[in-house]
Design brief:
With 400 residues, this protein is of the alpha/beta class. The protein contains 13 helices and 21 strands. Helix 1 packs parallel to helix 2, helix 1 runs parallel beside helix 8 and helix 9 crosses helix 13.
């Protein structure tokens, strides 16, 4: 699947830079075209002449290659590539990428890249384990970058631990699997709901919840990456979509989300209901801000909102799939199984607020997938990786 793919290989100042030669050879052997971008420190470990000989391309390191006014365009590079791989990625480069410190050609190219980015860290075990490094990696994951975890082994310091860059053949396999997966949902139309809903009390107050939308957005990006045309119906969140195959519809209230879902689902192959939709809304909405000085007590009368999941479950056709979510605080299994049946879901994703690091606002999640055949549990993972697990299960259902 790498044949004809254009790959930017970023090389930084690590002893593991010599492995970049094996990465280049492996990528080219599978038919890829490779353009090396190297940091100044990287050139202390491996020469551009060696890299240029392997790629049959000049190695890019500086913005201005000559004194005649010509320069290397990081924007053009970012548009050219099908993927960008930084291997090895030092702690310094990871920190700059996470914080947008564009002081060399590699970082500016990364910031301009439209293609997916893969990062293979390489450093001593204490540097890798340091909270600042781990925080920077979490930030990069939250941007949608894919981290190729380092291996455990003997390091340049002769200490043994996690920090050794993954072997070239495994890095190449990750890229190959990525492009192999990119067509799995080709031609499918998928509707996804995400985020909270806000139910107005008056012009400045609302009933809402803590949903950030991160899980739903991760699912939208994963579906689009695998070839689907995605309609993302989202409540009020601060997130942005990245993939061009995502059509975003912004709503505020449960009623608006209900109406959008009713419109979009009949023409969709799959509906994934990840939004945390309010179950109740105020019966009346005040036209002006309610003043505390005039009210010793405030009583709100609430009424149920439209049940989006139940309504879609009723109109679901045999050739459609419907996936639900259940966020529970008690009787998790029983409540999730009941919801699976009542709403006519094909499977349901359960997460519990009793699990540390799961649920609202976190960048991680811990889920179980429940269908009529049983339950499969997954460990705590970044939400991008959780999205991969959910879509893998979805593809398995679609296939069979």
């Amino acid at each position: 699947m790498l044949k004809g793919k254009k790959i930017i290989l970023g090389i930084t100042g690590s002893i593991a830079a010599y492995k970049a030669c094996y990465i280049i050879r492996g990528l080219i052997k599978q038919g890829a075209e490779v353009q090396v971008v190297i940091t100044p420190a990287g050139k202390e470990f491996i020469t551009p002449i060696t890299l240029s000989a392997l790629t049959s391309k000049p190695v890019i390191s500086e913005f201005f290659a000559q004194r005649d006014g010509t320069w290397n365009s990081h924007v053009d590079l970012g548009l050219w590539a099908d993927a960008m791989l930084i291997a090895p990625a030092t702690a310094s480069t990871i920190g700059k990428m996470a914080n947008g410190i564009a002081d060399n050609m590699l970082i500016t190219t990364y910031l301009s890249a439209k293609a997916p980015v893969f990062i293979a860290p390489a450093m001593d075990l204490d540097m890798y384990a340091h909270p600042s490094t781990q925080k920077n990696l979490d930030i990069l994951r939250s941007y949608g970058n894919r981290i190729i975890e380092p291996a455990t082994g003997e390091l340049a310091s002769h200490l043994v631990g996690k920090g050794r860059m993954e072997e070239p053949e495994n890095i190449i396999r990750v890229l190959d699997e990525f492009f192999s997966a990119s067509a799995e949902l080709q031609g499918r139309k998928i509707m996804i709901t995400a985020g909270p809903t806000y139910e107005k009390i008056d012009p400045v107050r609302f009933i809402g919840n803590y949903s950030s939308g991160k899980m739903g957005f991760a699912l939208a990006e994963e579906c689009a990456r695998r070839g689907a045309e995605v309609t993302l119906i989202t409540g009020p969140v601060q997130l942005k979509t990245q993939h061009s195959r995502i059509h975003r519809i912004d709503v505020e209230s449960a009623q608006e989300m209900y109406e959008a879902a009713q419109t979009c689902f009949p023409t969709s192959d799959v509906g994934i209901l990840c939004a945390a939709v309010a179950d109740f809304r105020p019966e009346t909405v005040a036209g002006k801000k309610i003043k505390r000085e005039k009210e010793e007590k405030l009583t709100l009368h609430l009424q149920a909102t439209q049940d989006i999941a139940a309504s879609l479950g009723k109109i679901k056709e045999d050739n459609q799939l419907l996936v639900g979510f259940a966020l529970e605080t008690n009787n998790e299994q029983q409540n999730a199984e009941g919801k699976l049946e009542r709403k006519n879901f094909d499977f349901i994703v359960l997460n519990s607020l009793n699990d540390a690091g799961a649920g609202f606002r976190h960048d991680t999640n811990k889920i179980s997938i429940i269908d009529r055949k049983g339950r499969e549990d997954y460990p705590l993972k970044p939400k991008q990786e959780v999205a991969q697990d959910i879509i893998n299960h979805l593809i398995a259902v679609l296939t069979h």
